[in-house]
Specification:
single chain; globular; three-stranded antiparallel sheet; about 30% strand
């Protein structure tokens, strides 16, 4: 499977895609970001969104098989 770097077929950046996903579903994980829009660096996109004023919390989790991951939870825009 080949992913186009940076933008999807509609020309949206990964940052915009992550924000839209969070607004719609209120949370996202690295696996979801990879499957949904080929985002390999979710933590970087989350940091960009935080710097833009979005309130996104990190929630460390452990899967049933012991693998640790982070679920990002969307609250709201801080500057609204």
């Amino acid at each position: 499977m080949m992913f186009e770097v940076g933008k999807n077929k509609r020309g949206k950046s990964q940052r915009v895609q992550v924000l839209e996903y969070l607004r719609k579903r209120n949370s996202i994980t690295q696996v979801q970001a990879l499957v949904e829009f080929g985002c390999f660096r979710l933590a970087a996109r989350i940091e960009e969104l935080r710097r833009a004023g979005h309130s996104i919390k990190s929630s460390p989790r452990t899967a049933e098989n012991g693998v640790k991951y982070v679920k990002y939870l969307y609250a709201h825009e801080l500057n609204e």
